[in-house]
Structures are given as structure tokens and as C-alpha cells.
Amino acid sequence: MHIHILGICGTFMGGLAALAREAGHRVTGCDAGVYPPMSDQLRTLGIDLIEGFSADQLALRPDMFVVGNVVSRARRPDGTPKFPLMEAIMDSGAAYTSGPQWLAEHVLQGRHVMAVAGTHGKTTTTAMLTWILEANGLQPGFLIGGVPLNFGVSARMGTGNTFTIEADEYDTAFFDKRSKFVHYRPRTAILNNLEFDHADIFDDLAAIERQFHHLIRTVPPSGRVVSNGLEESLDRVLHQGLWSELRTFGAAVSDFTAQGEPHAFDVLNQGRPAGRVEWSLSGVHNQLNALAAMAAAEHVGVAPIDAARALASFENVRRRMEVRGTVAREAGVITVYDDFAHHPTAIRTTLDGLQRRLGSPRGRILAVFEPRSNTMKLGTMKSQLPWSLEAADLAFCHSGGLDWDADEALAPMGDRARVGRNIDELVVQVAAAARPGDHIVCMSNGGFGGVHERLLKALQA
User: What share of the chain has pLDDT > 90, as a percent?
Assistant: First the structure.
């Protein structure tokens, strides 16, 4: 089969392309501003990439056009379609489908799907679960919205029966407004947490809870739902109806609980010792992610003690508190990190985790962030930013492209907060403020204009 993917450089669609290629399909694709690292990974796989969404790509005559959710029926100010290829596909009557639908029909069918849903921690938890399965000989397939360092790739078919997938609640395509995860039909589903997000497509938290319950409805009677016992929103979801086995984690009365610090803790399963995790990760959020992964892995026969042993060699995911470089000074070292955090809760969790890991005394924490997600651009959560940045000694916000006043939103932080109108201004501000011993954490769900490399060069200069 020849498939042509619209929006191929996105994390999900790029992973789908890699899986389709591995399965023996001919794969081509297009995107606007074909960009690395996904473009490099796809070309290495022998996948031809086309710049833009021109209608002449219809002449490729694939068996199926697979449409990413970046594609819409939007028009430019002059009235011409933003995605002329999509208009041509529809006019011609050519076959097209969404990425999640194609994946469900051609990859997931017949596999034991293990889906990881939640506002935060999906990528890391999916990577943990995948590594637990791999380390215990299950040879899973996977599709993860990031690159787990233990594997070096974001997707593979795998030779075992299990398939782990990051289950996103974002909409499927312009012609299918259901959440992506309703297509996956998991036998094991993790509900990691649930907060309001994606303000561009959801009106309120109740609307997202409804989608999460749609996911629960697809889990079979012999399946397992693993849910965070600390989340009232997930309790409301479960109370709408549950037809499968339930395992909880996190709360004192949950099935899976932890005793000890996040970097070294004992795991209890229904109050009984079940293993011990000692690893390089920090933060209570990662401790909870581990409990969720272990509860899910148990469903396919991996004992918690074996799962804990596997997590000792878990290497995390790229862009999760990833050290991008250090600059040595006589009085100490300045460290620059990259992190994917973009929701206020994720920002707070990331900074709290670093604060705990550094202990006391410690160098200062400088938070450099970009409100880039659709939710943050709309300003829906701007009032939460001072709360999310409490652990930072200084905070630097890139305000380019925002329709709301970042200075006003960060005013409660006083002189601890600064705003840069562009990347150059931001780099100058951070470099001028940095001192030996500082930890500079750059947070964005995009490339952030290469701010990490530019900061390191400025600091070295």
C-alpha cells in the first residue's frame, strides 16, 4: 500500500510514518516548513518529503491519504485555501482517513494495546511502561510522542503482542472531532491525571472528562483501567461507568503506593511490599508515573518486583530535564536544561522536581519559558503563571506572538520576573542575570528558537 501523509513532521504522524514504513508500506508525505529532527529521521528511513500542501500532490495517486490534525478547511485572507491539497482530495473523491484511524486499522488491530492518557506525563509514562516490557522480554511495539533514550526512536512495530501508545485527548482531524485515543481500543488504559487544557477545542474540564469516559467505554471486560487516586476529575470520570478491572495508584488507599523519596522508594501493592525503585529521576510526578507503569505492566504478567528492577535502568525521554550544556566559571558551573513543560502545572512540577533534587544549599533556579501551546496563547491560564513559577528564583518569559500582557500576568512576582519580546532580548536578559552555580531551565513545547544553544554561546562569551 502507498500512503501519503499530510502533516508528516508532527511527532505523532512522523511516528506513524515510521511504523508504516517498517510494516512494508510505501510512505510519502508533506508538511509546511519540513523540519528536523523528524524530517531527518524520516529521510533516513527512505521516506520522500514534499514541502507544502500543493494540490499537484494529488498526482501521486496513493492508495490512501492520511490526514494529520494540523490540516483544516481554513482560508487565507485572499480567500484561497490554506491546504489546497486537502480541497483537491475531497473534490476528486480520493480515499482519505485520519492518522489515528489508519493506525487502529493497520497497526493496532489484534495487538494488546496499552494506552497512556492524561494531561501530564503521557510521554514519560509510556516510555517507562515500554521499557519495563522490553526489559522483561515482551518486545513491545510502541508509538511515543518523544524519543525515549533507552530506544533512540519514537516508534517501532515490535515482535511481541503488546503495543504501547501515548493516548492524546486532542482531536483526531478536522473531519473527526473525537479525541485521538478513542480509536485505539486499549485492553490496558492508564489515566495519569486530568486538568483543563486545549482551550482551543474544549470549552471546559467537563468536556474533557466526557472524552476520557469515551476512552473507558472502549476498554473490554477483561481489560484494566489504571487510574490516579489523587485526582477528583478522574473519580468523576470513573463514576460515569466502569466495565473493566480497576487499579489505582498514588493515594494512601490506592492499590499501588510508594514510600520514600522520589529517587529511591519502596512500592507497595495493596499494602504489601512489591519492589524498590532506585533511579536517576527526580520529582513526585515521576514517582507517580512509575506506579502507573508498574500497575499497567502487571496486567500483562510483569511482576512489580521485575518492573521495579527494569526502572533502575530507565533513561528518561529527550527534552525531559535534559542537560543541554554547561559553562564553567571559576566560582562554579552554570547548567542549561531543556524541558517540554508548557502547562502551568507541568511548569510547577518540573521546577519543584529540580528544587528537590538539588537540595539545600543549592544554586539559583532560572526559569525561561515560552507560552506556546494554543491554551497558553489564548491566555486561558495566564493567572496561574506566578503560582507555577514559585520555585524559580528568577523567571524569564518570551512574550512574542501573545495577545495578552505578560508583564501584567507576571506582576505578582515583582522583580523576580522579566519579559523578553523576542529571543535575542530574552538571551541578553538571562545571560546578564546568570551567576556561577545557576540552573537555567528552558521550557517550551516547541523548538523555542534554539534558545538553548544561543544561551550557551552567550554565557561562554
Answer: 64
